[in-house]
Amino acid sequence: MNAKLFYDDNADLRWLAGKTVAIMGYGSQGHAHALNLRESGVHVIIGIRPGNSEKRAKEQGFQTMDVGAAAEAADIVQILTPDHLQGSLYEESIKPGLKPGNALAFAHGFAIRYKQIVPPKDVDVFMVAPKAPGHLVRRLYVEGQGTPALVAVDQDATNHALDVALAYAKGIGATRAGVLQTTFAEETETDLFGEQTVLCGGLTQLIQSGFETLVAAGYQPEIAYFETLHEMKLIVDLIYEGGMSAMWYSVSDTAEFGGLSVGKRIVTDETRQEMKRVLREIQDGTFAERWMAENAKGRPEFKTLRDEAKQHPVEEIGRELRSMMSWLKPSVEEEDRVSKEEKP
Predict the structure, then answer these.
(1) Residue 196: CB partners within 8 Å, gap ≥ 6?
(2) Which of 108, 135, 230, 312 does the annotation list as catalytic?
(3) What pLDDT is attached to residue 50?
(4) Is residue 31 flagged as an active site residue?
(5) Share of the chain above pLDDT 90, in %
């Protein structure tokens, strides 16, 4: 294994001593980073505009101020706003307050990789990217555990950018679980590829297509839901805990033989070729340009796609069935929907 991993013993919180960290945005990741850092002894302020998130931050004891003032007061500026907003936020409010020796921090490399932000040469630029949503980053920290994360340095003006990045990772609890060193380009490109082809795009299309096939053949929608969506969690949990071999070991021989023999008929060479095309579009900036242009136009295609996904029959039947499952925890959809879209 060639990957370089860092743990608690490799990180020193003293690199954050006497420094002020400004968290820009108080959404899903923002609240988790801010609370975890504060409980690790770090001085944290929140850069945010008036609204519900500002109210939550104040209620939880943070000093809040507008983004420009927070950037001016900070030694480390962590930008945790949506990708498509970071460039304009940086130019208008953060860049004027940066001083030599400051650090710009990110939890995703999009803005740096696609040059939405071009920092001055006299500041450090690093990334600490937890591999979990914010509510889980927070919960695991409180439980004394941590979320694995990626760390990268794009610009090392002080010769200590990695030291500061690892201290930050320790402050949010990530070094408890392990932090893997990468680059901004590798994190961004693999993250976008995984989301689009497997984790979000590929998975949801596979579920919808399987559901549609069964219902079109005359089977009950409720049965189709259980067989193509509900049981997905059981399979994914097995894979998460022990890899695919653990999943194959745990299912029946019938399921194993059927899955191994049929899977390649579903994910074909044509699918793999399309995956390569998707990756090229990520690497050459085509997707980033398309996404930024979509936002500039007011998101017409995005809104249409989102509405279509919400109205799919598998979602409708799922809402009915889940309402009868008293053991399910309340969905975090509404909290995360607001927080991931909220401007600072």
Answers:
(1) 202, 278, 282, 287
(2) 108
(3) 87
(4) no
(5) 91
